[in-house]
Write a structure and sequence with these properties.
252 residues, seven-stranded parallel beta sheet, 11 helices, 44% helix, globular, binds NADP nicotinamide-adenine-dinucleotide phosphate
């Protein structure tokens, strides 16, 4: 990956930050799109501004995304890693309209807007990495919009893989990761504390993702046991939801 140019979102926190660290260690040129560039200034000082370019961009703003085209003129992008994402662990009727819009905007629409904006600058065989979620495959009370947005994201990535056979599209379907994500999703941290023991380490997952980019994997499902359990669930989803409802209520 040495000398390649990647655009990364979500690099200021959690999994995206772990991915960014590895890319910079591998001497990849990274353009990070961040809401607050100050969060990544120390990393820029460490690696130099030629290796890490910081662009202020609020991914809730379509205008700010489309205006990015000015920054990339004359550049070639070898890959996009979309790690920004959010969710609110609350029931459908507890979501404010703004929270609902925010969820779909960041998790689905803005990815598409960014992809469309950056397409003219992509090399002929670019890598597109989307950080999805195992929530895409599971009905969950108190995480309906999050799961729905990740299901949509998943389908878009799968279709993109077919529509653009020259692209390498890697979907990362991850279970819970120990990151600040949970502080926003559920400020009471009830879910995070309950599932602390099974949470993935973001640095280890980031290593798997980088390996997946290098080996051109289509999908990473982590943890594997969760992936296989969800496959069994898909054999009789409505039956299981009806008779083992507590299993689908764990984010309440
Ligand atoms: N953590 C989990 O348990 C878990 C499980 C399954 C899937 N995922 C997915 O994994 C991905 C990474 O999440 P994480 O756990 O690393 O969460 P995180 O630590 O909360 O990081 C989220 C990142 O998204 C950025 N972001 C949020 N809103 C933005 C906006 N409007 N414009 C630009 N950037 C914005 C944040 O920037 P700021 O620093 O400015 O806030 C941050 O860098 C997400 O797609 C998430 O859905 C996470």
């Amino acid at each position: 990956m040495i000398g390649r140019h990647y655009v990364v979102t979500g690099g200021s926190s959690g999994l995206g930050k772990s991915i960014l660290d590895i890319l910079l260690q591998k001497q990849v040129y990274v353009t990070a799109l961040v809401r607050d560039v100050n969060k990544l200034k120390p990393l820029q000082l460490k690696y130099g501004s030629s290796h890490l370019t910081l662009i202020q961009c609020d991914l809730q703003s379509t205008t700010q995304i489309t205006e990015l085209t000015n920054h990339f003129k004359g550049q070639t992008i070898d890959g996009i890693i979309y790690s920004s994402g959010l969710g609110y662990f609350k029931s459908i009727d507890q979501h404010t309209i703004e929270e609902m819009h925010e969820t779909y905007m960041l998790n689905v629409i803005s990815f598409n807007t960014l992809l469309t904006t950056l397409t003219p600058y992509l090399n002929r065989m670019p890598t597109i990495v989307g950080i999805g979620s195992q929530s895409a495959f599971l009905t969950q009370a108190s995480a309906a919009h999050y799961g729905a947005s990740k299901a949509a994201f998943n389908q878009i990535l799968n279709a993109l893989r077919i529509e653009k056979p020259n692209y390498h599209v890697l979907t990362v379907n991850t279970g819970p990761i120990a990151t600040p994500f949970h502080e926003k999703a559920d400020p009471s941290l009830t879910y995070a504390n309950k599932y602390k023991k099974i949470m993935l380490n973001s640095d280890k997952l980031a290593q798997r993702i980088i390996k997946g980019i290098i080996t051109q994997k289509d999908e990473i499902n982590a943890p594997r046991w969760m992936h296989y359990l969800l496959r069994i669930y898909q054999l009789a989803p409505r039956f299981l939801e009806k008779h083992f409802t507590f299993l689908f209520n764990n984010k309440s």
